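quick one, two chains, predict together pls
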Amino acid sequence: MRRWWAAAVLCLAGHALWVAAGGAQPEPRRPHFTDIAPKSTFAYRTDNNFTGRKYFPQTMCGGVAAFDFDNDGRMDLFFTNGAKLPELQKTDARFYNCLLRNRGDGTFEDVTARAGLLGKDLGFSFGVAAGDYDNDGYEDLFVCNAGRNTLYHNNGDGTFTDVTERSGIGTKPKDVLSVAAAWFDYDNDGLLDLIVSNYTVWTPQTDKICAVNGQEYYCHPKVYPSVAHRLYHNLGNGRFEDVTDSSGFGKELGKGMGVAIADFNGDGYMDVFVANDTVRNFLFINQKNGTFKEAGYEWGVAYDENGNAHSSMGADAKDYDNDGWPDLFYNNLKGQIWGLFRNIGGKYMNYASGMSRVSRLSAHSSGWSNGFIDYNNDGWKDLYSSNGDIDNMGQISRQPDTMFENVDGKEFRDVSAQLGPDFNHAGFQRGSAFVDLNNDGFMDLVVTSLDEKPRIMINSADNGNHWLLVNTIGRRSNRDGIGASLKLTTASGRTLYNHVTTSDGFMSSSDKRVHFGLGTEKAIESLEIRWPSGIVQNLKKVKADQILTVTEPER
Amino acid sequence: MTTLTSFPSQPLSIPATTLCLIVCLLASPLGGQQPAASSDTLLQHAIALHQAGDLDGAIRAYREYLAAEPDSVQARSNLGAALARTGRYDEAIAEYDRALRKSPDNPALLLNLGLAYYKTGHHAEAAARFERAVSLSPQFKEQVTLLLAVCYNNLGRYKESVSLLASLEKDKAGDPGFDYIYGTALIGDGQDAAGTAVINRILSRGDSAEARLLRGTLELSAHDRDNARADLEKAIALNARLAGAHARLGELLLSQGESERARAAFAQELALDPGEFTSNLNMGVLAKEDQDYVEARRYFERALRARPNDPGIRYQLANVDLATGNPEQARQALEALLAESPDFAEAHATLATVYYRLHRSADGDRERAVSEKLMDRRDALQTGAKSR
């Protein structure tokens, strides 16, 4: 009897082996994410002041920036917060913005008050963009608000100063909601300029009430007017000029959400994509003379394939198929189709949501912030989205985030369920930043959710893949090196592409260091950097698994 | 996922009077219109077989007679009726067509041909024959009104359907078939209050799949998705073969992001009626989203057969042309479409992209301007709040 039992087990084992040998390829080992926020003491939770009355901007709350404010080599975190409504003021501490200093031991210290970033005098804050606009080596912050926008200058001593008024960057039409922004140097003069994505004109007093059968819901965007996004030209000496009208941005009225910056046509000048909510998307192609041409139609990204403008939310522009051209992604609401567009030789974009399976994977999720992130360091940029419904009325309003893993640059598969319970937390997720918080070469995730503390999720970094992080320091170019394009060639000849930007997703600003996953390869044959100044720098035989600081050469 | 609107395509319950009309016309040979050829025993034999219910025998006899007398309208018409009675509608249509070539203004022939088209789901062709029959013989109006209204509903011509039925409401209200067809038309035409009154009238007689479908349709258009789902699922529970119910549920599921379940619902609808418009349209859109353009084209072409010349479907087909690398073909299709539907904003937008792709920038700029103007005008007309 005992022998028979043993034989049966052997038989079963043999069958299992046969299935493994003849079946699908074994699944790769995947890193997972663990939320370390509970280890730290801080008061911040994303508070949109929802108390029953549904004010239009409440759906957009919880911007996040990952940046190293104190230059200690560890990335810190900044969060924006809402305001008391209808007062539109941060009447008490629960609405304050928040700066968390990375202690380097897995905990964060709340240094907001000391840094002068509480924002007590601000209204409802939305997006945030980090960038060193004055090239002094310290990252500054721009905060988008209902009410006046704010430029904070990093003083280099752990404090910030509100320089909005004297910078000239605070100009915008009355009552415009500014929701997101991106730093970039559009004229390659070595100074970071700023594009601000504006949504509409709104005040608590003009807020509309929308209801069905007595139940209030958040109004459809169509009931609010579209507005122009604004471009600010950095004049140097801490001064900015509003060039919205002269640059061509003023002609196009939208309901701006996420902003993505990339050189889509490879002419050495950065272009701007703005995802608009229920209005066609804009692709502003840099004309290299201080003006932009809106070319969403020409590039095929204004509408979806049915000619419809959806609720475009966050946006990111990176090269997901490693062909050397930055592609484009935006997410939108459940029942719509997230837009993945493949750049065809810098001439136009082809819709790629279907062939890549993004259309099928995304149909059930309402996405907000997002971005291309090579979370497993295999050299292919995956697609992350922070999800959650607009409203709280449906049965599946609270949603988990999604990670669509890039399979050889051709298609994506949903691996969210395998990334751990913290990743799969269901909520009304909004902002997100990609950042290597512990400098282990694997990208971590910081995500805000309405009425919750943020999740600070550390990548388990346990699949053995190799990596490189490149910290660019411009000299003739802007000091951050934003806009620099990088081409990495491994020892086996594999080429990977990326570029420097802090803006991705929605309301958020990510680690400016350029991340490359290298898979199993340990050797990098070359790294080519094309700086915004036009200087091309070539590095040979670069060691993998390091944070490489590269300073722009003089010529 | 799709913005193209659609409504229940075909009611389950055609009213009893209308059913009677179909049976009578298809069963009865045109004996009363026989030629005076008393020697024509073969034809008499065929008619006798037909009247006795020996349809196969009658068909053989009619064909034998027609071999010798191919121009006999009566024999060919009767042959068509016998074929239709046996469910061989395509053959019947061919015989009716041949008879009509000899007698183009024969209202009874037109009516029978219309019925054969109706039975095969060719509502545009059926409507055209019914309209012509009534114009030739107004006495047919009462007999074909409901059938014509069903055709109009299926073709998305709800306004014409309402116009046809409104005058009958006083007499017909309370007739289950009439109420359903009229309710479908009213809701399709956006007359929600009047549609609700009809739904309530149906429900006053007890719960019914038809009433649930109508109410679910109304709720779906009002974005009241939870109630729409409950009503549509109940409609299917009450009658899983109710035409249009699975299609409507599919639309709801699509709007909820449940695309796989939506696919299954549309497939169920198409299993009941392979030509159903909404399901073919949405399956085409889903296939297009998957970039399975061959499959998308197949569905769109089937939808176009259900609603010939439908601008939305023609637009989708042009999009398939563009997506498959045929901008020149897309240009021709869009230009033809816009010549007939100049206010189709999305088509102007796509044509702008096509022109840019063809390096015709000035034309692209023009189409872009037209598109934006039309969309702005449409937005301005959208007063009042709505949910997403």
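The two ends of chain A are 82 Å apart (CA to CA).
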